[in-house]
Specification:
This protein has 9 helices and 10 strands. The protein is of the alpha/beta class and 252 residues long. It is globular. The two termini are 18 Å apart. Bound molecules: adenosine-5'-diphosphate (ADP) and magnesium ion.
């Protein structure tokens, strides 16, 4: 397949005046057993930017995020995060270094209350998580109302807010979200959209968003990558999402 690459690329690196990179993935390969799922994946998230990775079901988006988090070992390639190369470090080490991961399907603890779910982060991350708590409760006020409710009784959208809130308590440099709008009602999608824009604006957090909902991606992204069959086949500013040559790789 020929790669469709938009002219609207980010500034080439390195060079004076170009943005510093929070995350850089070069020639990433990942396998499940013998089968190669990712090949030659190249992707960058500049400091303070929101970058989206789109693609149909099964193309390798979640696998890319698992490789970045060290949940799945990369079989080849280079992951550079916050100026350091990451190869064998476990997920906990990456989280401590500033990767905040919200997995697909948002695995909160259903039998713990909202408050306990959040408090767990304070136990692990200490004072900086405690200091971040008011911001998280202000960002997602419903969590404040639901502090004593069990996580499992929340709606999908409320659980998503809890999952994002928990990741934010770790004070991430890079927030990594896997399909946060999946199965969530439109009013809460708007709320999550506003929250992501606020995180970027007020906290300067870099965000890597895996998402299939095109309008949402178009509204929040500084830059977009399109994946098909385990590799990046197109990239550019969010305006490429108006191009039928690009969106044909997204429609089912
Ligand atoms: N644990 C696993 N073991 C074997 N194959 C897997 C596993 N998880 C995903 N795959 C396969 O890897 C490919 C990419 O999956 P995934 O990264 O989850 O795609 P996406 O997130 O884009 O929907 C798919 O073909 C899927 O069937
Ligand atoms: Mg997935």
């Amino acid at each position: 397949m020929t790669a469709v690459v938009s002219n609207a690329k980010m500034d080439p690196l390195p060079g004076p005046g170009s943005p510093a990179m929070m995350l850089r993935i070069q020639s990433l390969e990942a396998r499940y057993g013998e089968s190669i799922v990712l090949r030659d994946v190249n992707l960058e998230v500049p400091d303070g930017k929101l970058v989206s990775l789109m693609g149909r079901n099964g193309v390798g988006k979640t696998t890319t995020l698992k490789s970045i988090m060290g949940i799945l070992p990369q079989s080849a390639g280079e992951i550079t995060f916050a100026g350091k190369s990451w190869r064998r470090e476990p997920p906990e080490a990456r989280a401590r270094a500033g990767m905040g991961y919200v997995p697909q399907g948002r695995d909160i603890f259903p039998n713990m209350t909202v408050g306990e779910n959040l408090q767990l982060c304070v136990t692990i991350y200490g004072a900086k998580a405690r200091e971040r708590m008011p911001f998280v409760l202000d960002l997602f006020p419903v969590l404040k109302e639901m502090l004593r409710r069990k996580g499992g009784v929340l709606s999908g959208g409320q659980q998503q807010q809890l999952a994002i809130g928990r990741a934010l308590l770790t004070c991430p440099k890079l927030l990594i979200l896997d399909e946060p709008t999946e199965g969530i009602q439109p009013s809460i999608i708007d709320l999550i959209e506003d929250a992501l824009l606020r995180l970027k604006r007020e906290m300067g957090i870099s965000i890597l968003l895996v998402e299939q909902y095109l309008d949402f991606v178009a509204a929040v992204s500084d830059y977009v990558y399109i994946m098909d069959r385990g590799t990046i086949i197109a990239e550019g500013k969010a305006s490429i999402l108006a191009d039928p040559a690009i969106t044909k790789h997204l429609s089912v």
